[in-house]
Amino acid sequence: MSIHDVIEIVDQMEKAGVIDRYAIGGAVGATFYLEPVATLDVDVFVTFRPEPGTLIASPKAIFDWLSSRGFSLRGEYVMIAGWPVQFLPPVSSLGDEALAEATEVDVDGIVARVFSAEHLAAIALQTGRAKDKARLLQFIEEGALDDTRFQEIIHRHALVETWRRFERQFLSGP
Amino acid sequence: MTSQLQKVLESKRALRRELAQRSIAEKLRMLDAMKERELAVRKAGVRRHGRRTPGVPT
């Protein structure tokens, strides 16, 4: 029971056409670029499809496919290989872009798709909770970001002022 | 900042860099282990809390 198994199941869902393009975000996504970031769940970003006959996008097809294969639902999570997995739709233009530009990484023979480091950092900046700020600092301190790409992203998504505040608060010298 | 503290912080940064550079498969296995530890700690915390609170069902 491992995150590797989670990636394998999500990959199967994509190949079976249950979901369209997916990408891993959150702490598990950050672990692709940083030291392991402790977490209790896995965030999988995917565009929800409208249910037949409606315009309302829903994760129902995902839940139906997984529950028909014996995976249990726990609130908004699905238990896969011992991990609570949350399927989340991108909720902003930044999230849409992060999903579209996610990168593929081989993990022991399975291709995992994960948000780029720069998108994960920009999402952390946009979300702005204490743990997000800490994660953004980790990306910076470890030199995990392509600065040009990061700056382009925060300009495209109107995060420049938020970034300046963050710089003043955490990155300016004494 | 004392030089001793600077040494401690630098060694922590070096460890983080070393962990970050490990293979992704290995880092994901570490996440699996960290989650199990976290859940075990939480369960132990609940049990301890239960013993210290007579009359409260656990």
Relevant terms:
heterodimer, A: 174 residues, alpha+beta, 5-stranded mixed β-sheet, two-stranded antiparallel sheet, 9 strands, 47% helix, globular, B: 58 residues, mainly alpha, 0% strand, flat, disordered C terminus
Major sheet of chain B: none
Terminus-to-terminus distance of chain A: 47 Å
Radius of gyration of chain A, in Å, reads 17 Å
Give unreliable regions of chain A as ranges.
Answer: none
Share of helix of chain A, binned:
40-55%
How does this structure look, described?
The complex is a heterodimer of chains A (174) and B (58). With 174 residues, chain A is an alpha+beta fold. Chain A has helices spanning 3-15, 26-31, 60-68, 93-100, 117-127, 130-141, 147-156, 160-171; strands at 22-24, 42-46, 49-50, 57-58, 73-74, 77-80, 83-88, 103-107, 110-114. In chain A, 35% of the residues are buried. Chain B has 58 residues and is mainly α. Chain B is flat. Mean pLDDT of chain B is 83; it is low at 52-58. Classes of the chains: A alpha+beta (174), B mainly alpha (58). At the A-B interface, helix 2 of A face helix 1 and helix 2 of B.
Summarize this structure briefly.
The complex is a heterodimer of chains A (174) and B (58). In chain A, 47% of the residues lie in helices and 20% in strands.
Helix and strand layout, with pairings?
The complex is a heterodimer of chains A (174) and B (58).
Chain A: H1 3-15, E1 22-24, H2 26-31, E2 42-46, E3 49-50, E4 57-58, H3 60-68, E5 73-74, E6 77-80, E7 83-88, H4 93-100, E8 103-107, E9 110-114, H5 117-127, H6 130-141, H7 147-156, H8 160-171
Parallel strand pairs in A: 2-7
Antiparallel strand pairs in A: 1-2, 3-4, 5-6, 6-7, 8-9
Chain B: H1 3-20, H2 24-52
